[in-house]
Amino acid sequence: MSEVVKENHERLLKFIDEHKDLVQENNFKELYYLFAEEVTRKLSVLTSLFLESNINFMEYLDKIPTHCFRYSDIKNIEIPNNILEIEEAAFVGCRKLVSIDIPSSVTDIGDFAFANCTNLESIILPNSIKHIGRYAFHDCPKLTNITIPESVKYMSYSIFYGCTNLKKIVFENTEQKILKIVDVDTIKDLRNFLEVNNECEIIFKG
Fold it and tell me: Which residue, 112, 85, 82, 117, is CA-closest to 100?
């Protein structure tokens, strides 16, 4: 264990010891956010402290907070099925992240959630996702295909801006419903709205 990791580990243990009441109540969610407020407002740093200490903090949350894994070196991650929401920029700049399988508990993907994940090749969206925020997959050049589940009721603009190698988008819904969801009239308008090029095949399976 490096000196930095050791120092961070001791820092975290000291904080937990000072808040034994929350630990005894199994209130890890409150402990997590309290630590974020008192020790650092940079949740990516906080996340590193928990991961270095082998504490799976996500088991005690119902959402992955804004900037939680921002610019971290994670290569893969297992999201537990108690997570309901991936907040804004939660994984922004995770340039070593290759693939991610989102559990069926998640309903919302926030703005810029996976932006600038330059090595992301695969992401599986479950049929529980209802909301996809703007620039959610911005600048993911290794992403080649993606399936948008039937459950999606709202998609913001520029979701795929900068996904230069995206070859196929499969919508598990009808063309009419997707155009209505994003409030456009034609497939050309849909391409412009999502910011995908003409080489990207768009398939409707509804």
Answer: 117
118, 98 contact by CB (below 8 A)? no
Q: Which residue in 131, 137, 87 sits closest to 114, CA to CA?
A: 137
Q: What is the pLDDT along the chain (206 residues), one digit of tens a residue?
A: 456 456 666 766 777 777 777 666 766 666 666 665 554 445 555 666 666 656 566 787 899 988 888 888 888 888 889 999 999 999 999 999 999 989 999 999 999 999 999 999 999 999 999 999 999 999 999 999 999 999 999 999 999 999 999 999 999 999 999 999 999 999 999 999 999 999 999 999 97
16 CB-contact burial (10 Å; exposed 0-12 / middle 13-18 / buried 19+): middle
194's torsion region: left (phi>0), alpha (psi -120 to 50) or beta?
alpha
pTM of the model: 0.76
Q: Give dist(CA 65, CA 6) in Å, integer.
A: 25
Give the other-Cβ count within 10 Å of 47's Cβ.
23
Quickly tell me which residue has 């080649």 as its tokens.
144
How far is residue 49's CA from residue 185's CA, in Å, rounded to a whole number? 48
Given a contact cutoff of 8 angstroms between Cβ atoms, the answer to whether 81 and 101 are in contact is no
Question: Tokens in use for 168?
Answer: 């196929």
> Whole-angstrom Cα distance, residue 151 to residue 129?
6
